[in-house]
Amino acid sequence: MSTTAPTRDLTQPITAGIVAALTGFASSFVLVLAGFAAVGASPEQAASGLFALCLAQCALACLLSWRTGRPLSFVWSTPGAALLVAAQGRTGSYEAAVGAFLVCAALFVVTGAWPWLARLVRRVPPPVAGALLAGVLFPLCLAPVTALQVQPLAAVAVAGVWLVLRRVRPALAVPAAMVVALAATLLSLDGTPALDWAPRLVPVLPEADPFVIVSLGVPLYVVTMAGQNIPGFTILETLGYRDVPTGRVLVGAGVGSAGAALFGGHAVNLSALAAGIIAGPGASRDPSRRWIAAVAGGAGYLALGLLAAPIAGLVGSTDPVLVEAVAGLALLDSFVGGLVSALADAPQRVTAALTFAVVASGVAFGGVGSAFWGLVVGLVVFWWVRRPATSS
Question: Is residue 5 part of a domain?
Fold first, then answer.
């Protein structure tokens, strides 16, 4: 009895952590690789960025969960990866994009060090934040439809597998769709691609381009805070963890993001989706034991990160149209969530619509991308709509 009870106590949180890592990795790694490629990363740099993110997530989850006794799980920024895809061809070079990644990481650190800034970010109105997220994701959500024109048979197969599994095994829908996309590509090739199995980190020398920093770095910070960090804290509070050290978590996310950026990673943040698995009763009946699930999840990401090179090689050999189609299918839930949040406040629906329209348009003014201008327009219109009209 004395030997089986501790084993049983460990089995549940470890299993929950591994499931969370597998689910998080499989559901969005395609998007992350597509984002790196969109801002100019080579296949080797994309693999390095994916590996660096996994390393940072593992280190943060293990260190902060162990030190605080709280189930703090970390993941890469999924809306941030979508933002990279939307910025395709506008960063000039991958080095400039990495410079923007470092600015985003610095903003995380500043936010954690000065609580008033965290409060300010929390005050970004939900109609604006939701519309910003939906606008960033919208072009990518169109990719499955666009793929029908370019690769009709493969696109129908990808969407069909995703739709069937979405009903019966939702967790397998995106990975299975990616397998179909890869199979369709391999069937069209003369031979199988050569894969590099050795994990490696490729340093990237960042460049400071003011236009890229404003159009990519600042929106990356905003969508990551609004789309993942803040919901992550909210979910933890809902599950009973009301004493999470916000400042320490954000500083840690910033330091981890900066470390990953030096090797091509874009941003690491507190998990929102995985928090429901790792910090909930399914991880352990005893809340004080659930931090073990976060550590197990971090270790799971590390194990998956060791396979970054062959995974990136396989995805890199797949038709980009099909890769983006799979990523678009994976983001439909996030897109819908952004729209629901944006339109929940009836008096501010025009604000949400204008924000969405500007962001989704993809236009750039003065070298600055649409995500930044959508945020500016949204905040201005939100303030104007709320401002009481003066009586004549």
Answer: no
